Amino acid sequence: MFPLLALASLSTLATAAPASDSSSCTGTISSLDDVSTAVQCTTVNINAFTVPAGETFNLDLLSGTTVNVLGEVQFGNVSWAGPLFEVKGDDITFNGNGQLWDGGGPFYWDGLGTNGGVTKPHPMMKIEISGTLSDVYVVNAPAQCFSVSNPAALTITGVTVDNSQGNYPNSNSNGLPAGHNTDGFDVSANDLTIEKSTVINQDDCLAINRGTNIVFQDNYCDGGHGISIGSITSNVVVDGVTIQGNTVVNSQQAFRIKTDEVATNSTVSNIVYTDNTATNCTEYGVLITQSYPASLGTPGNGVIISDVNFSPGTTTLTAASNAYMVAVDCGEGSCTGTWDWSGLKTSGGEVGPMDNITVITGYTQ
Ligand SMILES: *[C@@H]1O[C@H](CO)[C@@H](O)[C@H](O)[C@H]1NC(C)=O
Ligand SMILES: *[C@@H]1O[C@H](CO)[C@@H](O)[C@H](O)[C@H]1NC(C)=O
Ligand SMILES: *[C@@H]1O[C@H](CO)[C@@H](O)[C@H](O)[C@H]1NC(C)=O
Ligand SMILES: *[C@@H]1O[C@H](CO)[C@@H](O)[C@H](O)[C@H]1NC(C)=O
């Protein structure tokens, strides 16, 4: 009796083993038809293919999956809401291998972004994984490019968003830059690092809408609206953000915190800027505003911003001659804590308004 039981439990083990083995296959995607089978495997290879217009390339992956992108991914062009690509899963290794993801931006661009004109699929790349996402190379996002909301710790490294073509007007944009609202990374995430990445665009390089423990380091932002926290709406928390070692060029602002004038019950705390460089800031070097969507308006005080530090390392910025190097537009009593700005070295423009702010120490230009 006893040996028989042992045998029975052994055979239970033996039948369990093939189940996990069966996912150790390699799935290959060369069209959307391949996706449902390929995602049964913990290795997924993506060949060059075109996603049909109006459909999302949606990868819902098994835990522990490795994705290898082996060819260019294009998307058929049609005006619709998107997203174009969506990926979900835990403990994912996503190797972009520098392959292009072409959003077809020029087909949609009309200078109006998501504020008007034709409906543009956005975000282009919806990332909901933990693990790592590396070497993904996106060109011509129709509007907002990456949105990131991870289930657990995620590192994004070596990613490119090249929307440089959107800097120029086209036949639909009435003389305006054709690309608009082409945010690089829109983030609502905890335990996220974005590093060694490049964004050339016409809106925020990074916009953190909420989240904790976020590091943005060694990135390059060109031509857009710089590195932003916000805009902050009601009932959200941003806590623990490190902006470090980044280079920001030719952008409206380099470093901005923007909270909606009407927002309430939100907090932004423990923000560290260190070892960054910014040149040719065309409107502001640093802008902290509680009057968003105005840059300098009538600030609200329903969002508490605390402990915003430009230290310990040096952040150097140069503003254009008609720009403000620094401007702060806080509501009464809503910018609090320790603001050590001794590492901020600015030149090139003027110091702008510094409203309702008594907490800043150490800033000497
Ligand atoms: C979509 O349109 C853009 C802009 O004209 C073009 O570059 C891209 O190749 C088109 N995509 C496809 C799949 O045809
Ligand atoms: C304030 O915001 C927090 C989230 O940060 C939320 O849990 C809470 O319900 C909000 N309070 C009110 C009164 O809305
Ligand atoms: C500064 O940046 C603006 C906006 O990107 C650009 O048009 C201008 O040419 C740049 N100026 C210099 C001196 O690089
Ligand atoms: C100070 O904040 C209050 C609102 O909290 C605002 O009405 C006032 O305009 C601010 N002061 C300045 C100089 O901006």
Automatic annotation (TrEMBL):
<feature type="active site">
    <location>
        <position position="225"/>
    </location>
</feature>
<comment type="function">
    <text>Involved in maceration and soft-rotting of plant tissue. Hydrolyzes the 1,4-alpha glycosidic bonds of de-esterified pectate in the smooth region of the plant cell wall.</text>
</comment>
<dbReference type="InterPro" id="IPR006626">
    <property type="entry name" value="PbH1"/>
</dbReference>
<keyword id="KW-1015">Disulfide bond</keyword>
<keyword id="KW-0378">Hydrolase</keyword>
<protein>
    <recommendedName>
        <fullName>endo-polygalacturonase</fullName>
        <ecNumber>3.2.1.15</ecNumber>
    </recommendedName>
</protein>
<dbReference type="Pfam" id="PF00295">
    <property type="entry name" value="Glyco_hydro_28"/>
</dbReference>
<dbReference type="InterPro" id="IPR011050">
    <property type="entry name" value="Pectin_lyase_fold/virulence"/>
</dbReference>
<keyword id="KW-0961">Cell wall biogenesis/degradation</keyword>
<dbReference type="GO" id="GO:0005576">
    <property type="term" value="C:extracellular region"/>
</dbReference>
<dbReference type="InterPro" id="IPR012334">
    <property type="entry name" value="Pectin_lyas_fold"/>
</dbReference>
<keyword id="KW-0732">Signal</keyword>
<feature type="signal peptide">
    <location>
        <begin position="1"/>
        <end position="16"/>
    </location>
</feature>
<dbReference type="GO" id="GO:0071555">
    <property type="term" value="P:cell wall organization"/>
</dbReference>
<keyword id="KW-0326">Glycosidase</keyword>
<keyword id="KW-0677">Repeat</keyword>
<dbReference type="InterPro" id="IPR050434">
    <property type="entry name" value="Glycosyl_hydrlase_28"/>
</dbReference>
<comment type="similarity">
    <text>Belongs to the glycosyl hydrolase 28 family.</text>
</comment>
<dbReference type="GO" id="GO:0004650">
    <property type="term" value="F:polygalacturonase activity"/>
</dbReference>
<keyword id="KW-0964">Secreted</keyword>
<keyword id="KW-0325">Glycoprotein</keyword>
<dbReference type="InterPro" id="IPR000743">
    <property type="entry name" value="Glyco_hydro_28"/>
</dbReference>
<dbReference type="GO" id="GO:0045490">
    <property type="term" value="P:pectin catabolic process"/>
</dbReference>
